Amino acid sequence: MKIVIFAPHPDDEVYGCGGSILKWIDEGHDVHIIYVTDNRALISWGQKSDELIEEEVKQFLNMDEDKIAEIGLKEAEDVAKAFGFVKNKVHLLKFYDRDAINQIDLGVSLSKEFLKNTDIIVIPSYSDTHPDHHATHLIAKKVAKELDLNNVEFYVYYMNPMNAPKEKRAKVRMAEFRDKLYEIMALYKTQLCLKAANFGWPTLKKRRTEYFGVFKLEDVEKYADF
Hints:
This protein is α/β, with parallel strands linked by helices. It has a single domain, classed as LmbE-like (Rossmann fold). Helices cover 38% and strands 19% of the residues. The chain contains 8 helices and 7 strands, in the order βαβαααβαβαββααβ. The protein starts with a strand and ends in an 11-residue tail after the last strand.
C-alpha cells in the first residue's frame, strides 16, 4: 500500500501516529511524509504562552525565527531518517509556522505529485483548533478530490479526544515500536523545550495502540472530525 502522512508541524507525526508509521514501514509499505510548516514560531510562541522549559530552551533563545526554522526542518529530516523513511519520500512544504491556513491552494499544488495512487492518507482531525492542523486537513482532502481518489481511506489522528463514531474507528497495535518511538522523539530538541511536548514524551513508552477515525471522500462534512 501507498501511505502518505501529513504532519502540520515537525513532531505531530510522532504524537499523532508515530507507532503506526514504524509499523507500516516495518511491514514494507510505500510510506511518504509531508511536513507542512517549518516551526519557526515555536520559541516565540512558547515565550508568549509561558510554555518553555527554562533549562531546555537556553540554546535557542537568542536565535531569530529563520534560524529556528532551519533547525526545526533539519530535526524533521533527522527524525524521518530515524523512522526509516527513504529520503525521496520526505517532503517539506516549508510554509511559515501559523500561516498554512493562507497557503491552502499552494499546499494542494505542491502535494499533488506526492499523493498520486495513494491508498491511505493520514491527517490531523478537522476539529483540531490549531490553524495549521486545520489547514493541513483541508489541503489533504482537496488534493484527494482533485485527483479523484474516491477509494482512498483517510486515517484521522487526534490531538483532542476522538469524536468519530465507533463504526468509523480503527486501531493499530504498535507496542513493539514504543521504545523506538520514544528514542525518535528525543531528536526534536526544539520541540522538547515546550512543556506539553516534554510532558507527553514519557507517555510514548506506555503506548500500545494508536486510534484513528477512518473516512472516505463521501464522508466529507458528515462528521465533526472530517
